[in-house]
Write a structure and sequence with these properties.
315 residues, alpha+beta, 6-stranded antiparallel beta sheet, 3-stranded antiparallel beta sheet
């Protein structure tokens, strides 16, 4: 039986989309419409991926591998020069430099690995002698390692997409709630620590929980990234079906995914709406606290962090 796209309810589900984004290591897919799938990839998912790169490399320093090769551009300053950092923790110059002799001939260069490769190929093709200088640095100071992470509408739409993807995967023939545009759902950053939810996963995992409450006619979701960033998604206040609780998890260290229909019932109340951006220092403290809890539970030790977190609550 052909089923409609769970996002627009207009097009057939003729495409497959990752429940957990592929840039986080997700591999399991759910059926959705091709038009929505292509639109979301360009509209917001690619932007979230770029936003996550510094966060992923920061965690890579602390033993959490990146699921794919990424480069954080213009990441650090070393000896007055700006450097990129990749997921192998190699830093290369952000801006390439070329040295020429008095006749204007290139005698040496240094820059990113792709730049160096291009220069080498050019010299070989033209039979020119060359000297490529490798000025990558391996030891950068972690205490001075800072980045900005935006909690904007793009990551909020991704949270909705993950919840709907989980619902479509575990209950493909079931219409669970009325359809809205993906950016019309209310998604709130959730500062709370839910013990019953934390017991569902191994530390540092990504998590999706979607639960209904028949008595309250509600359906909501909880989405966690690395067990550190947590969001509450109000999916519906007009749900009339049976109670259910669907859970999906992804371990970023092993890339193991698990999806199940759970007998657990959490009945988590909605997160508080943030009228103004939280105090910068207190928010960084809360985030660092969650990081230390997750890393200590996973690796048995605290980590010293230096984070500058940009916060945006735009709709």
């Amino acid at each position: 039986m052909e089923i409609d796209c769970p996002y627009c309810n207009n097009e057939p589900s003729d495409s497959r989309d990752h429940i957990f984004p592929s840039f986080l290591g997700g591999s399991q897919t759910a059926q959705i419409g091709k038009k929505c799938n292509n639109k979301f990839g360009h509209f917001f998912e690619a932007k979230v991926f770029l936003n996550f790169i510094p966060f992923m490399i920061f965690l890579r320093i602390h033993r959490v591998p990146a699921p794919k090769y990424v480069i954080w551009k213009d990441a650090i300053i070393h000896d007055g020069k700006s450097y990129n950092i990749d997921s192998n923790l190699v830093a290369t110059p952000y801006k390439p430099e070329v040295t020429k002799d008095f006749k204007g001939r290139i005698i040496n260069t240094f820059g990113s690995r792709s730049f160096q490769k291009g220069i080498i190929n050019f010299f070989k093709k033209n039979n020119v002698k060359y000297d490529v200088v490798d000025k990558s640095i391996l030891n950068f100071k972690i205490p001075e390692f800072k980045f900005t992470f935006q909690l904007d509408r793009n990551i909020r739409m991704l949270c909705v997409k993950m919840c709907v993807g989980l619902l479509r995967y575990l209950a493909p023939d079931k219409e669970l709630f009325s359809y809205k545009k993906i950016d019309d759902y209310e998604v709130l950053y959730d500062f709370r620590y839910h013990n019953e939810v934390e017991e569902l996963k191994v530390p540092l995992s990504h998590l999706i929980v979607v639960e209904s409450n028949k008595k309250k006619k509600s359906c909501y979701g909880i989405v966690q990234f690395y067990g550190i960033l947590q969001f509450y998604i109000d999916l519906s206040d007009r749900y009339f079906g049976d109670d259910f609780c669907f859970i999906g998890s992804l371990d970023p260290l092993t890339l193991t995914e698990d999806f199940k229909n759970s007998e657990n019932r959490f009945h988590i109340s909605p997160a508080n709406r943030i009228v103004h951006a939280p105090n910068h220092e207190s928010f960084e403290h809360l985030l660092s606290q969650r990081m230390n809890i997750e890393t200590k539970n996973r690796f048995g030790e605290d980590l010293i962090k230096s984070i500058e977190l940009g916060f945006s609550d735009k709709v």
